[in-house]
Amino acid sequence: MILPRIRDNLLNHSRIDLQHDGIRELICVADGYPEPEVNWIRASDSSLLARNSARVLLKFDNEMHGVNKYICEAKNKHGLTKIFITVIIPDNQTKPLLSYSDIQSHSVLLKWRVSNGRYDRFNHFIIYYRRLHHSDDSDKEEINDTIKVEDYKQVLIDPRTTRYSFTFRVMDLIPYTKYEFRLKGFIGATPSAYSNSIIIKTLETIPDKIDNLHGYVWNETSIVVHWTPPNSTNGPNFYYILYYTTNTSVPFDQWSQKIVRTYPFYVLEFMMSKLNLLFVRVASINAKGSILSDFHIINRSLTNHHLISTIDKFQCSPNDINQLFSIQWTIDYESRFYINKYILYYMDVTENNDDLIRQLIIPISFLSIHKHESYDLYKYEFNSSLFNLNYNSYHILRLNLAVIDQNQNHLSMTQPAIYCTVTRKHVPNNVRVLATDKDFIRLSWTKPTRLSSPIYGYTIKYRAVNSNQPWMVKQTNRTEIFLSELRPITKYEIILQAYLNSSYTDSSGPLTRIEVTTDET
């Protein structure tokens, strides 16, 4: 005698969102002897929707939209087992129509209407938007029923705050940047279909003012000037002009100047014997206009006193499966005493009209160091989302690495540049920390979409950060996990990976990594 048992690919009282979880049907599988009969039943009216032996499929094509509850029931002559599943079915017949007007450099006015005209029924709307790759000039509307939510920023709109005008101005956009917008509405907890996709490009404006202008004497004939680049060019034909003089009584339009079109630093040839004080300013310029930085003064005492070796063996290594990116390099072991941080310069060469080189600050404390006899090997691994990139399926990055010493002087930079490709993958979405305590962490996530293979479950590896301890491993076919027996006030690195075969041994599925700290005792 074996009572029927429903396999745990479906869990009692679980909640499934068809629109976000990428699910089109549910399969209920049961074991027992004799082989059980398995039924899908709509809980609201006890209607039998599907019946079969051992396994039965529930499709939602003819089900009403809304928050619906279903029962999977397995029975044989020895008994009966049932589980309850809540399913959110979107209202795909209601699709907002999105439009726009009044594009500015930092904002755009969005307008929408809904097909059924029942505006008063919607309790809220969500606007989804993201930056797009400049070189993608095909302003085609998206036709996908679902979107990868983590690629978008979101704004929740309560129609009561707009007096049901169904307009909203999205603010804080980047000038001269292409954006995609979509929208969906909610009647209670039931979402509508996603709206049409609209693509706009914000207007140009003058560049941002340069910050952190700095300079120092490199040697008897050279002075280095460097600064922090802006986050955006704000328009085409972007470049810098470095102005400098030793005599401030000279009118500004007579100062010496150098045009800088690449990296945000420049080496001036200047004899130390002629230098008392050097005054510098930097203008950032595009087709729309220019703006000047504040003054900076360099005197002969601002000298680099420490000889720091050149960076050697600079390499990059993307890991597209888990969206990690690593770089490594060597430098002589004595130089580490004088280095404050590193700067990674990067540029997406697949962009066809973006002249901006961006930078990523790398603190020393974030590096792993492997010591050798005459040099140290440094490695920095990070999530590729730290790159400030417009959305595209892949990016080709040109990389250079530079040193900042303890006096904030910008020193040697790797030459020539190296190149790496970053590809976006569909990973477990929206990983959320539901709860933490001194000895546990509870996580949830949504199922990745647009995969060529079905997902059978997830592997969760976790350990204390920088502990070099063996990984603790758990597996589940749910979209949440409870990690227990943890240490208080400890940061844990957690790797969540989907497996794509039923043997639960496949490690090639999409992966994401987070860090979570447990509470105090």
From TrEMBL:
<dbReference type="InterPro" id="IPR036116">
    <property type="entry name" value="FN3_sf"/>
</dbReference>
<feature type="domain" description="Fibronectin type-III">
    <location>
        <begin position="427"/>
        <end position="521"/>
    </location>
</feature>
<protein>
    <submittedName>
        <fullName>Uncharacterized protein</fullName>
    </submittedName>
</protein>
<dbReference type="InterPro" id="IPR003961">
    <property type="entry name" value="FN3_dom"/>
</dbReference>
<keyword id="KW-0677">Repeat</keyword>
<dbReference type="InterPro" id="IPR007110">
    <property type="entry name" value="Ig-like_dom"/>
</dbReference>
<dbReference type="Pfam" id="PF00041">
    <property type="entry name" value="fn3"/>
</dbReference>
<feature type="domain" description="Ig-like">
    <location>
        <begin position="4"/>
        <end position="88"/>
    </location>
</feature>
<dbReference type="InterPro" id="IPR050964">
    <property type="entry name" value="Striated_Muscle_Regulatory"/>
</dbReference>
<feature type="domain" description="Fibronectin type-III">
    <location>
        <begin position="93"/>
        <end position="205"/>
    </location>
</feature>
<dbReference type="InterPro" id="IPR036179">
    <property type="entry name" value="Ig-like_dom_sf"/>
</dbReference>
<dbReference type="InterPro" id="IPR013783">
    <property type="entry name" value="Ig-like_fold"/>
</dbReference>
